[in-house]
Design goal:
heterodimer; A: alpha/beta; Pyruvate-ferredoxin Oxidoreductase, domain 3; 6-stranded mixed β-sheet; 6 helices; B: alpha/beta; Rossmann fold; 4 domains; 6-stranded parallel β-sheet; 4-stranded parallel β-sheet; about 40% helix; globular
């Protein structure tokens, strides 16, 4: 199993939680994991990018043109980091009004911010919502929904219910 | 037990594994989580260890170093620019040495992600004539932290551990073996000749001892780190020598491209037993050195064979290592036929996203009020902290280093006497390095306004506690003690009060013949203990908005966005309900409450 994810968004959207979550899934499954994430100055409302490498890897960054999945919590930031994706790789992203047509990749979009403002998705769990959607649409994702749910409970039991609900809402999005 | 750890967490585990029982640090990205984790583990497990956030890196260094003098095992943590501040203590401690192990963790930031310089802390080790260790991953950082403490104790010399950003904020599954933690009793033993060695003869003697120690450590480097690898090398055309994270990238690039080459990992880039590597290096047709950020290893071995690196123009000289950059060198040197690390860029335009103060941050209102009163003509020196982002409001003209807002204001006041000078500094930065220049300003009558934006936390690095919060240290009393009675504003979330306050400051400044200090008591919106947000969300009355841009240019809340009609909208996803924009911001009163 070798799977590389680039996760993007803006500061405060909880990309680091997703990194921790998927790292935990890898640990539970006995698979190696290495990655790196944005903290600090770069975070303040600015672009946030994290790299997750599941399987036998050594270096923390994903090489350009190598990612299996670009997971986007904010539309502009998804477009900004397209170059990390390998040909025919997956894009799963939050969008607002429209999203340009992009060829050469498998693109899945969802209007998550809108659902968050309407109160249909907890804004603090928008990250997990998108992950839930990704779990649904991606073939051969390294972890199952059940494995992610287990990691959510282990990582933060206090907010597990809210997060699992968001995960399932994402998983249940009608395409 | 296997855990998923941030590199900084792995280092903290390494310190405990090595029985370090005193740690002090000053926060700074990317180093801050080391002490946070150490402190959390000490509390969780109720371990007999002492831990503190110090006032600055020099104090952290000295606090930990004293413990090592008494025979305890100690560590101090900082980012690389912090080592500049602690360097006075560092240089001297190298001669004197320590009894208990003493590890200095200096986190580098190749690529300037959150630092004003790139530097290379390994050079500080070479400069001070002490060993440096350069971990390649979080797992490796755990290993080298443990080795570093033991090495320091064995040779009675401070050791620098130099993790880079991608190690500190790398995340990996790390196996931490079970261990028992025990502290030591510190015991200061008088030895005036050693601990109080004075020039010339006692220090000269220590200098000779240091040189002799370095020889022995270089031998240790060869025996422990290099020899076991050298024995396994297969020989051939190409040898790649890699220090730190570069090693990880080299391994992946070789695997991805199928290129066969020998690789030698450098754990300790200084002191390097260069002459012992002479036969090895000259036996290859070509040797390429990859390292961050400066050519420390390369400089020490370049005379031994056909060595390629930064100095020969074959390897990147600035910014962080990536797969692409390693592959680029190998391609240019003819070892691979193409660089596979190429992706497809989005062809359309993506609007730039610059870092900005968070929605609801009081700093923004303070900068707005300050600028409104003192105008465009004033010089605005600022400092290191979130508030550096006041540059988006054109209320920050200079950023140099910690405390320099005050020091530069001293100089500006005597060099450009035409313009008003209004400096900004945060509470932690003021306590770190802002007090000596304020004393200078009082003593030498430098006329400027110093605004201390006091949210009583180190916000930028993740809300570490400040002396005010943990020890009732009073900034107004310190300022008064320096000789200035400060003006104080309790931030109330309105532009009106803030502007009135600065009008008063300006009146006093105009009559002053020395520094005027204004303290604004604020909060950080992430600080659960102090945050005050009234829950007044905003929207824009599209009929009233003229698209003049005043709110975006001069206030610049990240929730404000241009729409297709050339008017401003509030993005409800980002609005936190601070309510500041609802009055006295828009010249046409276009901001109205969005009742949710």
């Amino acid at each position: 199993m070798r799977y590389q994810i680039v996760l993007t968004g803006v500061g405060g959207q909880g990309t680091i939680f997703l990194v921790k979550l998927l790292a935990r899934c890898a640990l539970n499954k006995g698979i190696d994991f290495i990655g790196t994430e944005t903290h600090g100055m770069a975070q303040k409302g600015g672009t946030v990018i994290s790299y997750l490498k599941i399987g036998d890897f050594k270096a923390p960054l994903v090489g350009e043109g190598q990612a299996d999945l670009l997971l986007g919590l904010y539309p502009t930031e998804t477009l900004r980091f397209l170059h990390y994706l390998k040909p025919e790789g997956y894009i799963v992203t939050n969008i607002e009004d429209g999203f340009p047509e992009i060829n050469g990749f498998n693109v899945f979009t969802v209007k998550a911010s809108e659902l968050a403002v309407k109160g249909e998705v907890n804004p603090k769990s928008l990250n997990v919502f998108i992950l839930g959607y990704a779990l649904k649409v991606i073939e051969n994702f390294p972890f199952s929904k059940e494995e992610v749910e287990k990691a959510i409970v282990e990582l933060n039991p206090r907010f597990a219910d809210v997060n699992i609900e968001a995960l399932n809402k994402g998983y249940g999005v009608v395409m | 037990m296997k855990r998923t750890l941030l590199g900084n967490e792995a280092i903290a585990w390494g310190l405990l594994y090595a029985k370090v029982d005193v740690m002090a640090a000053y926060p700074g990205t990317p180093s801050s989580e080391i002490l946070e984790t150490y402190q959390k583990l000490v509390r969780q497990k109720n371990l007999p260890a002492y831990v503190e956030w110090s006032t600055n890196e020099k104090v952290a260094f000295e606090t930990a170093y004293a413990a090592a003098i008494t025979g305890k095992r100690a560590a101090c943590g900082m980012k690389m620019v912090g080592l500049n501040v602690a360097s006075d203590a560092l240089m001297s401690s190298a001669y004197i040495g320590n009894k208990g192990g003493f590890l200095i963790i200096s986190a580098d930031d190749p690529g300037f992600y959150s630092s004003q310089t790139e530097q290379d802390s390994r050079y500080f080790a070479k400069f001070a004539r002490i060993p440096a260790l350069d971990p390649s991953s979080p797992e490796d950082a755990f290993r080298l932290a443990v080795i570093g403490v033991n090495l320091s104790e064995k040779f009675e010399i401070p050791v620098i551990l130099r993790p880079v950003l991608r190690v500190c904020h790398g995340r990996q599954i790390v196996d931490i073996p079970d261990f028992e933690f025990e502290g030591r009793e510190g015991k200061f033993e008088r030895n005036i000749e050693r601990w109080a060695a004075v020039p010339r003869n006692p220090r000269l003697k220590q200098g000779y001892e240091l040189l002799e120690k370095l020889q022995r450590i270089a031998q240790f480097n060869y025996d422990e780190f290099l020899k076991p690898q050298v024995e396994k090398l297969r020989g051939g055309k190409l040898l790649i020598i890699a220090s730190g994270t570069s090693y990880s990238y080299v391994l992946e690039v070789l695997e991805d491209t199928g290129l066969k080459a020998d690789v030698l990992k450098i754990d300790m880039p200084t002191p390097l037993p260069s002459e012992k590597l002479s036969d090895l290096i000259s036996s290859y047709e070509e040797v390429i050195v990859f390292e961050e950020t400066y050519p420390l290893v390369e400089e020490q071995i370049r005379h031994l064979g056909n060595v390629r690196g930064k100095l020969t123009g074959d390897v990147f000289q600035i910014d962080e290592v990536t797969h692409d950059r390693v592959a680029d060198t190998l391609l240019k040197r003819g070892h691979i036929s193409r660089n596979i690390y190429v992706g497809k860029e989005y062809e359309g335009e993506v609007p730039p996203r610059v870092p900005a103060l968070c929605p609801g941050c009081p700093h923004r209102t303070v900068f707005y009020g300050m600028k409104k009163v003192f105008g465009n003509k004033a010089i605005y020196p600022s400092d290191i902290g979130c508030y550096t982002l006041g540059l988006n409001q054109k209320a920050v003209d200079t950023v140099l280093c910690m405390g320099a807002s005050v020091g530069l204001s001293c100089g500006f006041s005597k060099s450009d006497t035409e313009k008003p000078i209004v400096a900004t500094i945060g509470d932690s930065t003021f306590l770190h390095a802002g007090i000596p220049p304020l004393i200078d300003a009082v003593a030498n009558r430098h006329k400027f306004v110093l605004v201390i934006m006091d949210n009583s936390t180190v916000a930028m690095t993740g809300l570490q506690p400040t002396p005010e919060r943990i020890g009732n240290v009073s900034i107004p009393k310190i300022v008064e003690g320096c000789g200035v009675k400060p003006l104080i504003l309790d931030y109330d979330g309105t532009i009106k009060t803030t502007v009135e306050f600065f009008k008063k400051v300006k009146e006093i400044y105009e009559k002053a013949n020395g520094p005027v200090v204004a303290i604004v008591n604020e909060f950080c919106t992430f600080d659960k203990e102090k945050v005050k947000l009234p829950g007044k969300f905003a929207k824009v009355d599209q009929d009233k908005c003229t698209g003049c841009g005043h709110c975006i240019n001069d206030f610049g809340c990240p929730a404000f966005e241009w729409n297709d009609e050339g008017k401003v909208e509030v993005n409800p996803y980002f609005c936190v309900g601070c309510g500041v924009c609802l009055s006295d911001l828009c010249p046409f009163d276009a901001f109205v409450e969005d009742v949710r």
